[in-house]
Amino acid sequence: MAMAKEIMGGSLIQRSSFVSSSKVFLNPSFQKKQNHFSVNPLVVPLEKTRLVRLRKVVRGPVAAISEDLVKPVPVAVPADKADKGDKFKVRAVVTVRNKNKEDLKDKIVKHLDAITDKIGMNVVLQLVSTEIDPKTKAPKKSNEAILKDWSKKSNVKAERVNYTAEFMLNSSFGVPGAILVTNNHQKEFFLETITVEGFAGDPVHFFCNSWVQSRKDHPGKRIFFSNKPYLPSETPAGLRSLREKELRDTRGDGKGVRKLSDRIYDFDVYNDLGNPDRGIEFARPTLGGEKIPFPRRCRTGRLPSDTDMHAESRVEKPLPISRSKHVVTPPVDATTNWLWQLAKAHVCSNDAGVHQLVNHWLRTHASLEPFILAAHRQMSAMHPIFKLLDPHMRYTLEINGLARQSLINADGVIESCFTPGRYSMEISAAAYKSSWRFDMENLPADLIRRGVAVPDPTQPHGLKLLIEDYPYATDGLLIWSATENWVRTYVNYYYPESSLICNDNELQAWYSESVNVGHSDLRHKSWWPTLANADDLVSILTTLIWLASAQHAALNFGQYPYGGYVPNRPPLMRRLIPEENDPEYASFLADPQKYFLSALPSVLQTTKFMAVVDTLSTHSPDEEYLGERQQPSTWTGDTEVVEAFYQFSAEIQQIEKEIERRNLDASLRNRCGAGVLPYELLAPSSGPGVTCRGVPNSVSI
């Protein structure tokens, strides 16, 4: 088995868990012992492991399949009719084990597989007989059959899900001794068992208990043999070649770099523990050999490090990416019109990256996390400010952790779907260093900073919009004002005097740690607000609640409705805008439309991106929206505060009605009219799913 590095010290595969990763092949056997499973892996060196907990072996619900598994299946015809070419049907019942816990990346890819399954990228099975075809001198094989209902059952939550496939066999087929499995999905799945019914006698069982990799990672068909054992000399003629092939493939040839999806068992010394390229202090001696005897490990075959030819490299070095984004002016003829279309597409792709990495990730997810961490560390759960912030911190730490694993990580979804690629997080960091300011993150200050409003103390919100029909601003200011009023009432109730704020050790420690530790790289900036009186506290808290609720909602939940049609707003471009001296310029002139389409993301990239933004734009059924709280009448023991919260909730409901009224106002052409999508991103309530509306209390997706 080829993997990238060994199990790290102390990382043991426990009996109640099994490894689940697209980068790992275990091929374990599960043994039932008392009330749990134990795992006896054959060879278990791992590249990157994540343990997925298995529940106790209590046979829970299995997904209902589309056909009755126990109804009779036609059996093989009598031998005297075999020469007439009669056919009969057999059915395979395939049991796939779901992961007990899926991260965000798993859900996205699972959703993608459900979509692509509908267009023919299926799981395919083929039976192999124990007999040889006398005409071809090759093993008898059935027709290929697809696994049914994968897309329909993609969201089933049962521990095990049953699928079926049907085969039409010649009556002379014999008994199947092997089955070939091809996974045309993007993601691995854990295949537990296959039972083939319809032959004379008992069903034929295949106990697989193995991950089946995607064909893109493992191009060959996966071979599983039935549960009938054979000594080598007793192997039926139809299975001999498969048996030999499986062994050859498993042994490997001792050459080349092993891919993460390879199932190859080979030997090597422990020359991969150190990383001398990081510095001499990270060098480690080779374990295994005359000098330091040690058991061998599974060979991975990575290239040697730059500084020590005997040490295997640990990290793949990324290749540099060159760019050239030149000035394009408005069109004057047909040729420049196509160049203009390309230029607009490139601008959209760049803007999509800025939206995701700066406005979305940095300004909501990342900037809020230090305040949430410090709140849990420094304020008691009984602290009134903690109680105020509690619903606005829900799930954020968890979703940020998942994002670091699957979205913003190296070669993650963001890097693979957006133009900045491997420089994605550097762009986010550059924006944090150069332009992020907490004092500018409140809505009025942000609108003024962006040049769409000017200060005006005579106006209700202290500013005048320069674009009056600006739905985000006009709706947002209503929510900002209602939130600010609620927070002010709350703060004034608990802090009637400024001295109470200054002397609140927990409160001051929370804010101090948020700034000086959580945002330590910018802690010396003069623009940080002080926390000395009620106005300071109201401003800080309102800003945090705004960012967690309405700002994140406006940035996140419209991604699929507004950007899901990739030709209109591509997240990346694969070809540059050609100039006259470029080799590609001739092909551009010959067929500019073809060139434009080839510059857009590929079908696979497009499908992946659509699946991602569809997931990110989805409200969960247990979403909690602005103006709502769990136990709304008892979340605090202060009845005056409960009453104030009910008033806030009522005001939020009125804002929703006002937004509905505005969306029907024909004079507001940016939100009402033929072909104009009503602006509902800041409409507070929503049902589950992709609705392009709804303001959850927190950054929960």
Task: Give a summary of the structure in a few sentences.
This is Lipoxygenase. The chain is α+β, with helices and mostly antiparallel strands.
What does this structure look like?
- By secondary structure, the chain is of the alpha+beta class.
- The protein is built from 17 helices and 20 strands.
- A 5-stranded mixed β-sheet has the order 5-10-6-12-13, with no helix packed on it. Strands 7, 8, 9, 11 and 14 form a 5-stranded antiparallel β-sheet that branches. Strands 1-4 form a two-stranded antiparallel sheet.
- A hairpin with a 7-residue loop joins strand 17 and strand 18.
- Helix 9 packs antiparallel against helix 12 and helix 9 runs antiparallel to helix 17.
- The longest helix has about 45 residues.
- The protein starts with 16 loop residues before the first strand and ends in an 11-residue tail after the last strand.
- The N terminus is likely disordered.
Shape: globular
Report, as a whole number of angstroms, the end-to-end distance: 37 Å
Low-pLDDT stretches are: 1-84, 292-296, 316-324
Roughly what fraction of the amino acids lie in strands?
5-15%
Number of helices: 17
CA radius of gyration is: 31 Å
Major sheet: size, sense and barrel closure? 5 strands, mixed
| Average pLDDT taken over every residue | 81
Helix content: 25-40%
Using DSSP, what is the number of strands?
Answer: 20
What is the structural class?
Answer: alpha+beta
Strand order of the largest sheet: 5-10-6-12-13
